[in-house]
Amino acid sequence: MTPEDQRLLSRAIALAATARESGNPPFGSLLTGPDGSVIAEEHNTVLTDGDITAHPELKLARWAARELDPATAATTTMYTSCQPCGMCAGAIERSGLGRVVFALSSEQLAKLKPPTVGPAARQEGPALFEEARVPVEGYYLP
């Protein structure tokens, strides 16, 4: 990790503090372009927006997917105060961002907060393969 990476990661941590000060969970992220300049910043707004998906990493991934061409997105770096959750990691992958640098790992974060309350949603499947494959078949592969 370079000194510049550390400087930008410190900015992501400052954005996390901003989120906390505004009454939201303490997470912040920023995105740098190919030249290393900051092109977008976000902090968590889950509570103030009333939106469980308002994680800064997801907001930046969505912004990048809308605003950047794939070649440019591939040259970006996201700096984030904590390792992206599964939802955000999926969005980052789909948006084509090139690199993610994080401060706290998911394991470190887990030690700093209480365990998740409530059971995980039960999932059932797969089912109805023949029916379900019809709208999907041929979409991804010619």
- Derived from helix and strand composition plus strand pairing, the structural class reads alpha+beta
Strand content: 15-25%
Average pLDDT reading = 95
Spatial order of strands in the largest sheet: 2-1-3-4
GO molecular function: catalytic activity
Organism: Nonomuraea cypriaca
Protein name: Nucleoside deaminase
Pfam family, one: dCMP_cyt_deam_1
Structure overview:
The chain has seven helices and four strands; from the N terminus they run H-E-E-H-H-H-E-H-E-H-H. With 142 residues, the protein is an alpha+beta fold. The protein has a four-stranded mixed β-sheet with strand order 2-1-3-4, sandwiched between helices. A hairpin with a 5-residue loop joins strand 1 (28-32) and strand 2 (38-43).
Compact summary:
This is Nucleoside deaminase. The protein has 7 helices and 4 strands, in the order αββαααβαβαα.
Topology, element by element:
Blueprint: H1 3-21, E1 28-32, E2 38-43, H2 46-49, H3 56-67, H4 70-73, E3 77-82, H5 86-95, E4 99-104, H6 106-112, H7 129-136
Parallel strand pairs: 3-4
Antiparallel strand pairs: 1-2, 1-3
Helix pairs in contact: 3-5
What tags apply to this protein structure?
142 residues, alpha+beta, 4-stranded mixed sheet, 45% helix, globular
